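Lab notebook page, bench 4
Experiment: in silico fold of construct C2
Operator: M.H.
Input chain length: 390 residues
Purpose: comparison with the prior construct
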Amino acid sequence: MNTIERVLNLNAAAQSGCLDRSRAAPLMAGRPCLFADARVYLAADHMAAMARLVAAMERIVALSGWRERALAQGPETARHDPGNPGVLFGYDFHITPEGPRLIEINTNAGGLFLNARAQGDPALERRGVEMFLAEWTLAGRAGRPATAAIVDENPSGQYLAPEFDLCRELLRGAGIDAFVCDPAELSMVDGRLRHAGRGIDMIYNRLTDFALETPASAALRQAWLSDAAVLTPHPRAHALYADKRNLTWFSDPAWLAAIGVDAADRELLAQVVPRTERVRDVAADELWARRRGLFFKPAAGFGSRAAYRGDKLTRRVFDEILAGDYVAQELAVPGERLLLVDGAAQPLKYDLRCYAYRGEVLSTVARLWQGQTTNFRTPGGGFAQVEVVS
């Protein structure tokens, strides 16, 4: 039996009793589907392929041809370059019979601090803090920030709100006066970003207003464009890495070669990234005929919102997709994990998220769910620890 076969067998065996409830319970209050009581097993070769993809993305984004194209299609705010690349990207994969497939890249990926605490990993928590200090230095600042704001819309109402509190605790432990707030609570006064009169040096940006375009983000946008505070992650990072339209470029090997992507990276992309197309570039009848093998996502979407498996589409929803700005990605069916939920064996789908900073994978976790798209509403589902099998 090879490693991949062994992993399939391990994931097909019902499991429970893996979650340290003493650590997880405070984080799960009011959020019963935050953590799954199981491990997901992953072949070492598949982990290595995902790590190679993360590293390759850094080389590709460094190419002038990639940057020029990404920034040309991105918002005006993405053209500002502060020097710091942005913390904590999430590379989301499905494990298929042919190996890992990159589904998307996120630049405001949640969950690292939650999983580090639930798994009792203080080294990972320290690494998380070190990222923010590195961002400060890369933005050309001396010393370390005195104040930091963790910003999201209605932060206390977010499902991952406990992570904001964890991040605040860790930053305070590093001597940084950190707090959580809504972007509408920020203001620019005399060239300084402030919250209730207090000056802010750094922002951990968890907003899904990726371009800082909404009225609530006005002060944050001004601070970003004037370098009044170090923002991380930021609109430039989203345009370079996470805009879903960028995924279509991986399906164009001739263009990749023309901008300088080497043969090894082009081969890796062909293996790991499912073919992706702009919906507006394909005839509607052709897309409808091929829909069962496709997954449709809004170019500016996040968190699986308004994303659809083609085999579940109604004609009405398909017409809405045609009218919007969508990409169609070759369907990569997620893996399956059997676990015990209330004493009964339940098969759940899973994906894998690699948390990365500057091309290095810091941690990999699984998310378990049932339904069309990833969610935290499935009984027994949620984040799960990953065990790599050699």
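Observations: Residues 44-61 form the longest helix (18 residues). Residues 169 and 178 are 8 Å apart (CA to CA).
Next step: discuss at group meeting.
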